[in-house]
From TrEMBL:
InterPro entries: dTDP_dehydrorham_reduct, NAD(P)-bd_dom_sf, RmlD-like-bd
Protein name: dTDP-4-dehydrorhamnose reductase
Listed SUPFAM superfamilies: NAD(P)-binding Rossmann-fold domains (SSF51735)
Residues in RmlD-like substrate binding domain copies: 12-290
Family: Belongs to the dTDP-4-dehydrorhamnose reductase family.
Protein's gene: rmlD
Coiled-coil blocks: none
Signal sequence coordinates: none
One GO molecular-function entry: dTDP-4-dehydrorhamnose reductase activity
Superkingdom of origin organism: Bacteria
Pathway per the UniProt entry: Carbohydrate biosynthesis; dTDP-L-rhamnose biosynthesis
C-alpha cells in the first residue's frame, strides 16, 4: 500500500533520454526503487539499467501491454523530441514523438485513473523582443509557436488535458542538469563543443528562465500528492539569454573564451526559426504553493555575466572559485543549496 506521503505507485516516467526525464527517473528511483519505471525507445539501447524498459510509445499495442503489466498509479510525462531542426524537416516524426506517443500513454492513464504530470515547454510562445520591463508570459497568453516543435507541444498539451482533465501541465524552460548522451541538454551541448575545441554560437536575444533539475524534481514530487490541474508555468526566477548561459558554462568549465560567439537570432538564418524572450511568469504556481519552488540558475549572482565580453575576464568571482568538470557538476548541474546526486552520463558509465 502506498504511504500518504508517497505518490501513487508504481510510477511511469517517459522521456528519460531527455534532461528532465533522465534526472526525474534517477531522483524517484532513489526514493521508491523498483516501483519506478522509465521507458525509452528500443533503438536507444545504450540507455539501460534497473527499471529502464524499452517501449515504442507510438505503438498503441505496446503501450497497452506496458500498462497491463504494471498498472501505474502515476505518470511523469516528459516524452518529446526537442531537436528543432529535425522537427522542422520532418513534421511527421515530430507529431509521432511529441503528440501520438503522449496520447497513447495518457489514454491508459485515464483508464487506470493515474495521477499525471506533463512537462511542456516555454517554446509554445514565439517570444518577445528582450525588454527588462517584460514580466514574462502568463498562462492565459495565447500560444504562438514559431517552430514545429513548439506547435507539437501545444497539441500535446491539449491531448493531455482532453484525456486527463485532472492532469497538471507544467510549462518548463531549460532544465539545467546532465543528459544521458552528454550533449542533449543546454549545458552538455555547449560544453561538448568547447571540450572538442569547437566554436559555439549562441543568441543574444533568446531569453529563457532555466531551472535546476534538483528543484524541478522536488516540485514534481510535491505536485504528485496535490490535486493541482490545468496549465502552470514553471520557469526559474532568473532571466538569462542563451549567450549568457554559454558564457557561464565557458567560465565554470575553464574553456577557451575565444570559442564562444554570439549573434542576434535573425542573423543565424531561417532554419530552424528561433524564439525571442520566452521568459515565463510563474506567479500562479508560486501563489498556489505559497513559496518559490526554484532557486535562480546560476545561484551565485557573481556568475551572472554583466556584458558580452565578461567570459574573457570575469570579475568579482568567489575567492575559492575553481574551474573544471567538478565545478560544472557542483555549480551548474546541482543546486548548491540543496544538491541531489548527479546521474552518470553514457560517457561516465563506460
Amino acid at each position: 500500500m502506498t504511504s500518504p506521503n508517497h505518490p501513487p505507485l508504481p510510477m511511469l516516467i517517459t522521456g528519460i533520454a531527455g534532461v528532465a526525464g533522465f534526472n526525474a527517473f534517477h531522483y524517484f528511483r532513489r526514493r521508491y526503487g523498483d516501483k519506478v519505471i522509465g521507458v525509452r525507445q528500443p533503438s536507444m539501447w545504450p540507455l539501460s539499467g534497473p527499471g529502464i524498459i524499452p517501449c515504442e510509445l507510438t505503438d498503441s499495442l505496446a503501450v497497452q501491454q506496458l500498462w497491463q503489466e504494471h498498472r501505474f498509479g502515476s505518470v511523469i510525462s516528459s516524452l518529446g523530441s526537442c531537436r528543432l531542426k529535425s522537427c522542422e524537416t520532418d513534421p511527421d516524426m515530430a507529431y509521432r514523438v511529441n503528440v501520438l506517443g503522449t496520447e497513447n500513454v495518457l489514454r491508459h492513464a485515464a483508464r487506470y485513473d493515474a495521477r499525471v504530470l506533463h512537462t511542456s515547454i516555454d517554446l509554445v510562445f514565439a517570444g518577445r523582443e528582450p525588454d527588462e520591463s517584460h514580466s514574462g508570459y502568463v498562462e492565459t497568453d495565447r500560444a504562438d509557436p514559431v517552430t514545429v516543435y513548439g506547435a507539437m507541444m501545444v497539441r500535446a498539451e491539449q491531448v493531455v488535458l482532453d484525456q486527463c482533465p485532472d492532469a497538471c501541465v507544467l510549462r518548463i524552460s531549460l532544465p539545467m542538469g546532465i543528459s544521458f548522451n552528454g550533449h542533449a541538454g543546454a549545458i552538455d551541448w555547449i560544453a561538448s563543443r568547447f571540450k572538442q575545441g569547437k566554436p559555439a554560437t549562441l543568441y543574444f536575444d533568446e531569453v529563457r528562465t532555466p531551472t535546476f533539475t534538483d528543484c524541478l524534481c522536488r516540485l514534481l514530487a510535491d505536485l504528485l500528492n496535490r490535486p493541482l490541474a490545468g496549465i502552470y508555468h514553471a520557469g526559474g526566477p532568473r532571466r538569462i539569454s542563451l549567450y549568457q548561459i554559454a558564457q557561464v558554462v565557458n567560465v565554470v568549465g575553464g574553456h577557451d573564451p575565444s570559442l564562444l560567439h554570439g549573434c542576434m537570432r535573425r542573423q543565424a538564418g531561417p532554419m530552424p526559426p528561433r524564439a525571442g524572450d520566452v521568459s515565463l511568469n510563474c506567479d500562479k504556481l508560486v501563489e498556489y504553493l505559497g513559496r518559490q519552488p526554484f532557486d535562480p540558475w546560476p545561484i551565485d549572482d557573481r556568475l551572472v555575466p554583466t556584458h558580452r565580453d565578461w567570459h574573457h575576464a570575469p570579475d568579482d568571482l568567489p575567492e575559492d572559485f575553481q574551474v573544471g568538470e567538478q565545478s560544472v557538476a557542483q555549480l551548474l548541474y546541482q543546486n548548491p543549496r540543496r544538491p541531489e546526486p548527479v546521474p552518470k552520463s553514457r560517457r561516465q558509465q563506460t
